[in-house]
Known about the structure:
This protein is of the alpha+beta class.
Amino acid sequence: MHRVAVAFAVSAALSTASGCSDGLVDVTARVLLDGQPVSGAAVTLMPAGGTDAHEAYGSSNEQGVVEAFTTTARGDGVRPGDYKVLVNKAAEDAPQEIPRLNPNDPDALKRFQEATRGGNTAYTRTALPRAYLDPAQTPLKVSITPDSDEIVLELKSNEAK
């Protein structure tokens, strides 16, 4: 009886540590900009229309690798489905892009409201081209299947900013 309990405990620990539960896929990603690894990038997988997938998040290490994605619990994986990919890397030395808002200028207020309605995309400080911040503009798309193990995200510095 003791052996059965130990075997069950070891089996449960291994399945939790090495795989994902609830149909989630343990997938990694390589983030490259013009063929070079991008460290410190925040990667968001946003479900494309018509899927049951949920957003998943991860960040790249010094080698540009996202070792694990989080959907509901840290490092739990990604649901199979089609995704648009958003990538951001904070720009420490970028000039402040949020203009001083003149409260007496209704056009400036309208532009600010329109820009912030979509998640501050137009005002986010980033070291990468802006196209990778906006779900409507990102050229990056991936399909995650139960067999997926690695995705490669090839960003281009000349992508529309």
